[in-house]
Design goal:
InterPro entries: Cyt_P450, Cyt_P450_CS, Cyt_P450_E_grp-I, Cyt_P450_sf, Cytochrome_P450_Monoox. This is Jg23977 protein. May be involved in the metabolism of insect hormones and in the breakdown of synthetic insecticides. Keywords: Heme, Iron, Metal-binding, Monooxygenase, Oxidoreductase, Signal. This protein is an alpha+beta fold. The chain has a single domain, classed as Cytochrome P450 (Cytochrome p450, Orthogonal Bundle). Strands 1-2-9-6 form a four-stranded mixed β-sheet. It has a three-stranded antiparallel β-sheet with strand order 3-13-10. Helix 7 runs antiparallel to helix 13. It is globular. It binds protoporphyrin IX containing FE (HEM). Protoporphyrin IX containing FE binds next to helix 13 and helix 18.
Length: 483
């Protein structure tokens, strides 16, 4: 143990208080000051640092070699300490589960994102993007538009009509508005919990004021999820899906003339096969509803802000789009989308500067080589994706928007760019997300010119479940004159 202590103690970090360690460091901070405090610590400690919360040790990484050691090894697949706070909401859904349960679920759900299915999703997303652009019409020539609210409507409708196979009716649309607000409240509860060490144990949290508020927020989220599942259950006809998705022909995704390729159908079918129960379905729908909408809405929010500040990039995206579609008005296919290289570079650069999932955490039960030294397992290991993406030794002019860097062979270490993570626990919805973002951007830019209001230097970030800002992110919309 003395060697163990030496090697783990050797990792620098802010001085803690006797017994409490760093557990009280964040209590008096706002979520914005906590966000900048983390950036101060990564600036001070060039390789990694550690925090101690009572008896828990968390090591925070942002060097690509250390990140590679952690992510590349299948030994470190389980999620870390802070993820426990998401458990009352997402339970054992794919994001949080581990071991054979995770493995079995990942196997059930992987076909939901098969490229043949994405081709059908593409059609739905084209329509959803057109509707999104139409909704923005009322904003033309307003002095500023908070685009995020329009974006979450778009991404919630998109995930419902693709992965869930559910078109929101009037009732569920109004429940979905409560759902959006609830997700935001949840972020505040989670920060309050994380920064107050006495709220970490579940029973104490449940008794607290914030714990009770959290419970009623979860009830709102649950009612939306139940609406979505109920609608799909009523739709019926999913019995033969398992068999049909396993065959080669694309037509097999149609049963009795109905499209049956929603991820929710796979789950309902698995329920009939006895490999998942209704709680299992609930936790996966909660997980995919959240992961499938807030991440892409956040990613698009920052992409639109950047494009508004870079009119030349807007022009180039449209030029490329018109070349690929031969200046016609036809609907883009998946293969057209894959040829939009400049647009893809803009999205990747935006995800580099503003990764919606800006940190992830793993549990470590095995020794790990960090900073060139073999170390015994600390409690939890956090990867600070935000800081990894902004390393000056990996990206030239790291704070600048330079999409061109993604048009060439990467000059950076492969583990210094991880917006979707990597390895076995990477993002299952990555291709879906890229497709959705490409369609939203080309559709909106074809109709409107974006003008800057919020500038990159105005952004003040706060600690939350995804990358959020203190103030709304604004752009201005102008009708684009057809030339
Ligand atoms: C720009 C959009 C997105 C970003 C930046 C993103 C990022 C990520 C990251 C970093 C992880 C790893 C999390 C961890 O290790 O704890 C992840 C996992 C996951 N993502 Fe995404 N995601 C996006 C969109 C989506 C979409 C559209 C879906 C669903 C349709 C989705 C579903 C999931 C799920 C279910 C997991 C857990 C996978 C597993 O552990 O097996 N994500 N995502």
């Amino acid at each position: 143990t003395s060697t163990k202590n030496k090697e783990l103690k050797g990792i620098p970090g802010p001085n803690g208080m006797f017994i409490f360690g760093n557990a009280l460091d964040y209590f008096f901070m706002t979520s914005e000051s906590a966000f900048s405090y983390f950036r101060y610590l990564t600036g001070k400690h060039k390789r990694m640092f550690q925090l101690n919360l009572l008896n828990k040790q968390i090591v925070l990484l942002y060097h690509p070699e250390d990140v590679e050691a952690l992510i590349n090894s299948t030994k470190h697949n389980d999620k870390g300490y802070l993820y426990a706070f998401l458990r009352p909401w997402l339970n054992d859904g794919l994001l949080l589960s581990s071991g054979t349960k995770w493995h079995q679920r990942r196997k059930i759900l992987t076909p939901a994102f098969h490229f043949k299915i994405l081709r059908h999703f593409n059609e739905v997303l084209i329509d959803k993007s057109a509707k999104f652009a139409e909704n923005l019409q009322s904003e033309v020539n307003q002095s500023k538009t908070n685009i995020y609210s329009f974006l979450t409507d778009f991404t919630i409708n998109s995930i419902c009509e693709t992965a869930m196979g559910t078109v929101l009716d009037q009732e569920s649309s109004s429940v979905s508005r409560c759902y959006k607000d609830a997700i935001h409240e949840l972020g505040t509860h989670l920060f309050n919990r994380a920064s107050s060490i006495w709220l970490h144990p579940e029973p104490l949290f449940n008794l607290s004021q914030v714990g009770r508020a959290h419970k009623s927020t979860l009830d709102l989220i649950t009612s939306f999820r139940d609406c979505v599942i109920k609608q799909r259950r009523q739709d019926g006809h999913f019995t033969d899906l398992y068999k049909t998705t396993m065959t080669e022909s694309d037509d097999d995704f149609f049963i009795n003339g109905k499209k049956r390729f929603a991820m929710l159908d796979l789950l309902l079918n698995a329920e009939q096969q006895g490999t998942i129960n209704s709680e299992g379905i609930n936790e996966e729908v909660d997980t995919f509803m959240f992961e499938g909408h807030d991440t892409t809405a956040t990613g698009l929010q920052f992409a639109f802000m950047l494009l508004a500040n870079h009119p030349d990039a807007q022009d180039r995206i449209l030029e490329e789009y018109s070349t690929i579609l031969n200046s016609s008005n036809r609907r883009p296919t998946l293969s057209d989308l894959s040829e939009l290289k400049y647009l893809e570079a803009c999205i990747k650069e935006s995800l580099r500067l503003y990764p919606p999932v800006y940190f992830i955490e793993r549990k470590s039960d095995f020794p790990l080589k960090l900073g060139g030294i073999e170390r015994p397992p600390p409690g939890s290991i956090t990867i600070l994706i935000f800081d990894l993406h902004r390393r000056a030794d990996q990206f030239i002019e790291p704070l600048e928007f330079r999409p061109e860097r993604f048009m060439k062979e990467p000059t950076w270490h492969p583990f210094s760019y991880l917006p979707f993570s990597a390895g076995a626990r990477n993002c299952i919805g990555q291709k879906f997300a890229m497709m959705e973002m490409k369609l939203a951007i080309t559709t909106v830019l074809s109709k409107y010119r974006l003008l800057p209001v919020t500038k990159p230097q105005d952004l003040v970030f706060k600690v939350d479940i995804v990358l959020r800002t203190k103030d709304p992110v604004y752009v201005k919309l102008e009708e684009r004159k057809k030339t």
